[in-house]
Amino acid sequence: MTTFIKNLITSLIVVGFTTSAVNAVDFYYRTDVSSTDPTVLANWAAQNGDAQAGLPSAADHVHIQAGATVDIATTVSTNQFRAGMMYNGSGSGFGPEPTGETNVNIKSGGTLSTAANLFAGMTWNRDAGPGQAKVTIETGGAVSVGSNVIIGNLYNQNNSSTVTGEIVLDGGALTGNAVNIGHKNNQNSTGVSTGILTMNSGTADFTGAVTMGHSDDSVGTLNMNGGKITAQGLTFGAKDLTGTNAHEYTNQTANLNLLGGEFHLIQAGWVNWQEEVTTSRNLVVGAGILTAANQLTSGGTYNAKLGTIRNLINYLIDNTNGNQSISIAATAKTAEEHSALLATYSSGNNSGSTEEFVIDGQGTIYLGSDGNLTESGQTALWAVAVPEPSSYALIAGCLAMTAIMLRRRL
Hints:
Layout: H1 3-19, E1 26-29, E2 44-45, E3 61-65, E4 69-72, E5 75-78, E6 80-85, E7 102-106, E8 111-114, E9 118-123, E10 131-138, E11 142-145, E12 149-154, E13 163-176, E14 179-184, E15 193-206, E16 209-212, E17 218-236, E18 253-272, E19 280-285, E20 289-293, E21 295-296, E22 302-303, H2 306-318, E23 324-328, H3 335-344, E24 353-359, E25 363-369, E26 378-385, H4 389-409
Parallel strand pairs: 1-3, 3-6, 4-7, 5-8, 6-9, 7-10, 8-11, 9-12, 10-13, 11-13, 12-14, 13-15, 14-16, 15-17, 16-17, 17-18, 18-19, 18-20, 19-23
Antiparallel strand pairs: 1-2, 20-26, 21-22, 24-25, 25-26
């Protein structure tokens, strides 16, 4: 499938689910309530301020206004869930234009499910100010998204607002299709969309790609501190559309901080990016690891995904445009962890191989294949940092003590 077709399909999915729902009703969280419980009927109103006859259902659109806090401890099902909107209607059921960060907390035992999209951080072009939202999925909590997870979204054409959205996994579970970190529904919008996905612990499973910087003037950051993400792609800035829907994406920023945990590309998954002088890409490799399952070829064999990762690493190191970077965090893989990885991804194991990329003054990035050319084989990327000066002193001291002991034995 060509890049154009893949991107077009993704765009159509986003737009289609954004604008359509059978018999959907808009539910707005009221500005005049102090309760954080979304199962309280009095907390909901229609756009005109009228009271709702019942709680939101799986067919409805839910809007959580700016500055509100919602704690989900049971099961909440909606068609779309939009958090962080400034606009909140104009009827008697609303106070002044709301401000501040929206916080949605998925508690232990709580489940949020959407038939279509989840928006964490969303603003309309009619809003009086920026939209800002944070969705936290705690241990024992779960979010199931029927379509796309959109973090930081500018909605509507010619929207000049700014928006910031973040999803944090603190031990919970998140599932969905594509993940767009920094997004616009229409590229004519001139505002800046900022999205952050932070994995501290827990799991996230996506059938589509995770894209950092999905739109013009967008900033997308993926912080991997722990846990595991499984996805079909890892995209550093959306690729240009061609054909009848031609569009050249510009001014994207894509950040991946691989500081812990694991990002795993499934068999059909790839690392995606394309050269664009206005797009900034930044990769920090710490104690985390990037793994990729072998790809099935037309001949029925399986190939390691060294090339798709190697090309990105070389591009970041070359930094031809002056706005690409790659670095190694001081808290990278330990010597013991590195040895264990080498035992798997080396020429001594199933004819595997390990490539090295030295980052001056910081350490070495390793790219390895386990040599297992079957469905279960995979590629891995990790890093080892240069020891701190104090570590050098400790190593030197140990060597000196060893030398003294050897001399005494002689």
